[in-house]
Task: structure prediction
Amino acid sequence: MTDCGCAKARKDLEEYLRNEICTTEHSEIGEHLENCEVCRNEALVATTLTEVVARACKETAPEELRAQVFARLREAQTAAH
Result:
């Protein structure tokens, strides 16, 4: 395989991590990440961030915070009309 290079790997990194690109491109980017520490670290940051956000989305906000958010949303909707 041919190394796709940093520009291509970074451009398509999110799609690569979600397995949303064709097999050939997936293989090329995977090979690049194996050989490029900078891009591999960027992939690690993206993966970690995605996992943290996913965990946070599963948690329920405290009732007081939820009430404050909904109150502000209602205020914003009223002000917009």
About this structure: The chain has a mean pLDDT of 91.
